[in-house]
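Hi team,

Filling in the usual template for the complex we talked about on Friday. All components are listed, including any nucleic acid strands or ligand strings, so the model treats them as one assembly.

SUBMITTER: L.P.
PURPOSE: interface mapping
COMPONENTS: four
RESIDUES: 770
SEQUENCES:
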Amino acid sequence: MTPVRRGQWQTASDVLAQVSRQPSITRAAVARALRLSTGSATEVTARLRDVRLLTEAPAPSQGRGRPTTLLRAHPQGPVALALDLRQGSWRSAIVTLDGSFQDHQSKRHRSRRPQVVISNLQREVGRAHQVYGARLRVVSLAAPGTIRDNRLMQAPTLGWAELDLETVTAGTGLRLFAGNDATLSGVAEARTGAAAGAGTALHLIIEVGIGGTLLIDGVPAQGASGAGGEYGHMALGDRTRICPCGARGCWDLEIDGRALARHLKEAAPDDPYAYTEAVLQRTDRTARRAVVKVVAALASGIAGLVNAHDPDVITLGGLAIPLRAAAESTFEDAYLDGLMTFHRTAPPPVLSATHQPDGPLRGAAALALDHLTSEPAIAAWVAEH
Amino acid sequence: MTPVRRGQWQTASDVLAQVSRQPSITRAAVARALRLSTGSATEVTARLRDVRLLTEAPAPSQGRGRPTTLLRAHPQGPVALALDLRQGSWRSAIVTLDGSFQDHQSKRHRSRRPQVVISNLQREVGRAHQVYGARLRVVSLAAPGTIRDNRLMQAPTLGWAELDLETVTAGTGLRLFAGNDATLSGVAEARTGAAAGAGTALHLIIEVGIGGTLLIDGVPAQGASGAGGEYGHMALGDRTRICPCGARGCWDLEIDGRALARHLKEAAPDDPYAYTEAVLQRTDRTARRAVVKVVAALASGIAGLVNAHDPDVITLGGLAIPLRAAAESTFEDAYLDGLMTFHRTAPPPVLSATHQPDGPLRGAAALALDHLTSEPAIAAWVAEH
DNA sequence: CCAATTAAACTCGTTCTACGAGCATAAGGT
DNA sequence: ACCTTATGCTCGTAGAACGAGTTTAATTGG
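RESULT (copied from the run log):
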């Protein structure tokens, strides 16, 4: 029997991780990045070719010297299915080892009943399973709600009760990675978006309430059961207000359409997202004043999180971007005002997310690829070939 | 020339990490924990003995079977110097690879002037350098203040201005790891204290204000420049109050002696720590009421952090322990009240820190050992022998 | 158009870690 | 005394990665 040596596919795994993070990276670039000798590079790529994980294509020559090759996913290599469940629609894509999407599609929900939506997802998993067979290794799913150990605990946007998401892959034997959509869009930003390369990044996204995640070297701090990142439920607001989450004074209630409606003395909106967009269109002074209050609450909350976590960069998504844009100077003032003095000389930049609508799907794909490129997954794949 | 193979001392490093975390662990236990074959265990320990990193001593027999050996630090092996700078005193200890302390001492400051204190630390480093020579590899320092890239940015407890801590090891060529005392005591808890084994742990300590850290697998989330963990400077409090840190509404101002004094309508205390202890002694209703308010602010803030980070466990240190004990039911109520509903069925336990006065020094030692047991450090040590 | 230059790939012998299988050893139990 | 059990030791084997030397495929410049 072949001895399964500790670290047997270590370098191979590192190479694949590089490839998945920087699609169409060259072999020479990988070798440089991992400080591999040319001999080792030759050997490891040959091995990866043999087991149908990578293929090589001649790279366009870049000046003098022997041209290098582009590392691509093998046409018979392993794939993952990434799913993004949204309020009004869902998306799916097959991801290959080089991080590229195939069969990318987006469909509207005909019914929003959990059973219907989940069975649509199941059907998609089943289809991918049929088309790709043993090449399909793992399914990852982004969902708009609090997720704990692959269970959807609360999803106010969808209006769903607690729900086991494992049913999506039930019967296929495929491993599922379910994650919060805000968390996963944070992963996308930290890997290939506005926070790329940051050691510590904070991602915040406003839709209904605020969600987000702290990312350390591109890895989200998901907590004990994966339910981390509910920054909207810290008591940064008015303690007399009760949040649907069960707690009081939640930040959530200060920074979205519900807060705008309160400031405008209007009834609580059914769809706080659309309501916020509508208020942002208005130019009257009352509306502007409401927006300013919300933006100040957003910025000072962010400042507190900067004090707490000292990130290299903060990325904003969803309504946080237009909100901030609508009151740029308010944002800046409240942000600086909330920072500890020593942070003020070089405050971490607050950037707009670059992956906008694709964030959750990209992030889900990234986590799936982390799994595909892990040593055990490679070893398992090799054992089958 | 010997090829420096990737992962050359990988297993050796793993073994040393085990030894440093569980002093007087047996060789057989290490082999089991790392899933090493007996052959590999024999080989790796022999290698570590050869390079003077470990020694073996016969272990007391534990029932049937051939008795195993205890792995101990080699008497000529590498050591680290751990320092803990406090308000009224400082401590030092030499740490060996098995995590045990030698030359543990504690001295009061004669003067608290930065120059005097720092030169005392320098002298201690110099002494250790003379006594241990090339065996001394690294110095780690815990300090009560915000630390960024080995600079002390603000230290309200000490009353010091910004200060470069690198001077402590200047001239010796030794690498310094400086860290916030609350962060380091969190490391101690997560490694060998009340949060041992927790994947995600939150440590909070009240002295003057509140400090702490989020720990993921025992590693503190220190942020971009190491200044992370300032949870006391999130705006959980009254926005009209200005904090010495420069921000407003800081949680800090709600949970220590300053808050108690406000509630009691007394003047802001010079020494909020001692003041808190004094108020905790009092049994009159006014004092009790003030304590209750502070405890509620503490507990609901903690609940918000639980929502945000979903830790397995929270550990409390410093005055947080007697404060909570003084109003146990208030704490419990406010804690549960601030949690999102789904957390309430099994809220993460809030435990008292077990390392109490030694926390920062233990944590500093732990981080120093992380460095000593790292592959590059081992390779460097081996190259010299 | 043919060197010269350059960067990268390939070949090969070597080193080193870790493995597994089998054997040896030191305790407790009968 | 002999069995059982847990552990340590020996040894042959395999795989990964290295370095040095060689080859290859591009650009550049005469």
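MY TAKE: The longest strand of chain A covers residues 89-96. The first helix of chain A runs from residue 10 to 21.

Thanks, L.
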